[in-house]
Amino acid sequence: MFTPGDYVVYSIEGVCRVEEAGRLNVPGLERGRDYYRLTPYYRGGVIYTPVGGKASIRPVMTKTDVQALLPELPGLPELTDVPTDIKQQSGFYREILAAHDCRKLLQLCKTIYNKQKQLAARRRTVSATELRSWKTAEEMLHQEFAFVLGKQPSEIKAYLEDAFAS
Length: 166
Fold this sequence. Notes:
single chain; five-stranded antiparallel β-sheet; 5 helices; alpha+beta
């Protein structure tokens, strides 16, 4: 169980600070169940989520974790199991986004980026679902990496492009 003051990554919301944990006396929450009260780091608002609920919640990566991941980026394989059916594809991308596994998010970005490059040569573009998933994955990665590295999210795109190119 996370404790107040911990920073976590919560589903697609991204980096959040745990403000409270335990049985919270808040109207609308199930009595007798433990909850987290989270404050998103890059947005306003408050999130209440059950401890052990379905939504993905994990500790924020450490600087060491990020630095260990960077050398892997140039050789990171693209996703090979992307469904061709648009409805299945949407669910596939949604699962990756909800799990917030940085390696999978980077693979998603690389896969759709390379597909976009191939299609651009024929004056075409990726689907709206792919574009939305790609942008969401980028935002999630930029926020977490920025938090960990003490940078602004806007600085992370160039940082990752350099890491992919090396």
